[in-house]
C-alpha cells in the first residue's frame, strides 16, 4: 500500500495541515508498518561456547576446506561415468576441380557415432577412488576444525587470563592504598617513620606499571583470538562472563592413548582413507592390463539417399607395458607412504597427548594446593602482619612482604588455572572432542 505525497501550488487554508505535516504523518505511518529490524548478533567472547560457534560458522579456512570437500564429493559420479561419445563426418570423392564441403555435392558422406566403453569394472573402481578421496577431504576438514578449535580455546584462555590477572593487580593496588593509609596514620601519630608511607607509594607505582604491561598483554591476546576466529584484529570482543569451562575428557590417559591406537582421530582416518584410495588405484592400474573397447555405428550417404550402414568395433591394444607397470608401482608406493604417515602421525599425536595431559594434571594439582592451602595461609599471614603493624609489633617491610606473598599466590592461582585450561584444550583437540 503506497502513501503518495500530495503537492499543491496553492497555499493551505486555515485549519488544514501543512504539506510538511502531511509528509511527517506519512513517514510516521510508514515507520509504524515497517518490518522490525533485528539486532546484530553479540560479539563472541562471553564464554567458550560463543568462541566455538563463531569459529565453526565464520572461519575462512574451514569454509574453504568445506568447499573443497564438497567439490571432492562432486567428483565421485563423473569419475565412473562413461566417456562422452564421439561424432564424426567423413566426406569422400571430393572433386579437386570443384572442391566443396556440401554432402550432396561429393561422392559419399559417412556419419559415425563412437562410444568408448571401459570394461572389467574400471568405472566402479574409479568411482570408489573418488569416494575415498572425498572422504579423506572431509576428514581433513574435521581434523583442521579440531586444531582450530584448540587454538581458539587456548587464545580465549589467554584472553580470560589477561583479564583476571589485571583484576588481581587492581586488588593489590587497592590493598597497597589501604596499607599506605595505615602507614600515614601511624606517621601522623608519631609511631612510624615517614619512609613506610613512601615505600607503600613506591610499591603501588610499581604495581601500576605492572598493570599497564598486563593490559598490553590483554590487547595482544584479544588480537590473537580475533586472528584465530578469522576476524579483524581490532574487532570487538565480549568480556568473559565467567571462568572458561574446559576440562579433561572422561577417562584416563591410557584410554585416550588407546583411542589414538584405534585411529579415532579424524587426521588418522583421513590418512587411512588416502591409503585406501591408493590401494584401489593400484587395483585399477592392474585392470588396465585388459583392453577397453569402442563401439560405433555409421551411415553412408550418397547423393541424397542412404547408401549403406556400418557397425564398428575398436579394441584398445595395451602395448605400453612398462608405463603401466610404473603406474602400478606408483600406486602401491603411495599406499605404503600413506600408511607410514598414519603411524608417524599416531606417534606424534600420542606424544602431544602425553605432554598436554601432564601439563593439565600438574596445573590442576598446583591450583588445588594454592587454593586450599597457600592462599588461606598467606591471607592469614597478611592479616596477622597488618594487625601487628598497627600496634608496632612488626616493621613495614614485613607487612609489605606478607601482602605481596598473598596477592602473588592469587596471581599464581590464575597462572596455573591458565596452564590447566591450555593443557585441557590441547587434549580435547587430540582425542577429538568438540563438546
Automatic annotation (TrEMBL):
Keywords, comma-separated and alphabetical: Coiled coil, Signal
Coiled-coil intervals: 122-149
Record InterPro entries: MdtP/NodT-like, OMP_efflux
Signal sequence bounds: 1-39
Claim: Cytoplasm is one of the keywords in the record: no
SUPFAM superfamilies tied to this protein: Outer membrane efflux proteins (OEP)
Pfam families: OEP
GO terms assigned for molecular function: efflux transmembrane transporter activity
Family membership noted in the UniProt record: Belongs to the outer membrane factor (OMF) (TC 1.B.17) family.
Xref: PANTHER family: BLR4935 PROTEIN (PTHR30203:SF24), OUTER MEMBRANE CATION EFFLUX PROTEIN (PTHR30203)
Protein name: Outer membrane protein TolC
Amino acid at each position: 500500500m503506497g502513501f503518495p505525497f500530495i503537492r499543491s501550488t496553492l497555499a493551505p487554508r486555515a485549519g488544514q495541515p501543512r504539506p510538511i505535516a502531511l509528509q511527517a504523518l506519512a513517514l510516521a505511518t510508514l515507520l509504524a508498518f515497517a518490518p522490525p529490524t533485528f539486532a546484530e548478533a553479540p560479539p563472541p567472547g562471553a564464554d567458550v561456547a560463543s568462541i566455538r560457534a563463531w569459529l565453526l560458522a565464520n572461519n575462512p579456512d574451514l569454509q574453504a576446506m568445506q568447499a573443497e570437500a564438497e567439490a571432492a564429493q562432486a567428483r565421485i559420479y563423473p569419475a565412473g561415468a562413461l566417456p562422452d561419445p564421439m561424432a564424426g563426418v567423413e566426406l569422400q570423392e571430393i572433386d579437386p576441380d570443384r572442391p566443396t564441403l556440401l554432402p550432396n555435392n561429393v561422392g559419399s558422406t559417412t556419419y559415425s557415432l563412437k562410444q568408448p566403453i571401459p570394461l572389467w569394472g574400471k568405472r566402479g573402481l574409479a568411482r570408489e577412488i573418488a569416494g575415498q578421496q572425498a572422504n579423506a577431504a572431509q576428514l581433513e576438514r574435521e581434523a583442521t576444525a579440531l586444531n582450530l578449535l584448540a587454538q581458539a580455546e587456548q587464545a580465549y584462555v589467554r584472553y580470560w587470563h589477561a583479564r583476571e590477572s589485571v583484576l588481581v593487580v587492581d586488588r593489590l593496588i587497592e590493598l597497597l592504598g589501604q596499607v599506605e593509609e595505615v602507614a600515614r596514620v601511624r606517621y601522623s601519630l608519631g609511631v612510624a617513620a615517614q619512609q613506610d608511607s613512601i615505600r607503600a607509594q613506591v610499591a603501588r607505582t610499581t604495581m601500576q606499571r605492572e598493570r599497564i604491561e598486563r593490559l598490553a598483554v590483554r590487547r595482544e591476546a584479544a588480537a590473537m583470538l580475533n586472528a584465530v576466529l578469522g576476524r579483524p584484529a581490532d574487532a570487538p570482543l565480549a568480556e568473559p562472563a565467567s571462568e572458561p569451562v574446559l576440562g579433561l575428557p572422561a577417562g584416563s590417559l591410557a584410554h585416550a592413548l588407546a583411542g589414538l591406537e584405534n585411529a579415532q582421530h579424524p587426521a588418522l582416518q583421513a590418512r587411512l582413507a588416502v591409503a585406501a584410495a591408493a590401494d584401489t588405484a593400484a587395483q585399477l592400474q592392474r585392470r588396465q592390463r585388459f583392453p577397453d573397447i569402442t563401439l560405433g555405428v555409421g551411415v553412408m550417404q550418397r547423393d541424397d539417399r542412404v547408401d549403406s550402414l556400418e557397425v564398428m568395433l575398436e579394441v584398445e591394444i595395451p602395448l605400453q607395458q612398462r608405463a603401466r607397470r610404473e603406474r602400478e608401482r606408483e600406486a602401491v608406493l603411495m599406499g605404503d607412504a600413506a600408511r607410514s604417515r598414519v603411524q608417524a602421525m599416531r606417534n606424534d599425536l600420542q606424544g602431544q597427548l602425553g605432554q598436554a595431559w601432564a601439563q593439565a594434571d600438574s596445573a590442576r594439582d598446583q591450583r588445588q594446593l594454592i587454593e586450599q592451602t597457600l592462599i588461606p595461609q598467606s591471607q592469614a599471614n597478611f592479616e596477622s602482619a597488618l594487625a601487628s603493624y598497627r600496634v608496632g609489633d612488626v616493621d613495614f617491610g614485613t607487612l609489605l612482604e606478607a601482602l605481596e606473598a598473598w596477592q602473588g599466590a592469587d596471581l599464581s592461582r590464575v597462572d596455573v588455572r591458565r596452564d590447566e585450561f591450555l593443557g585441557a584444550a590441547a587434549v580435547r583437540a587430540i582425542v577429538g572432542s568438540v563438546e
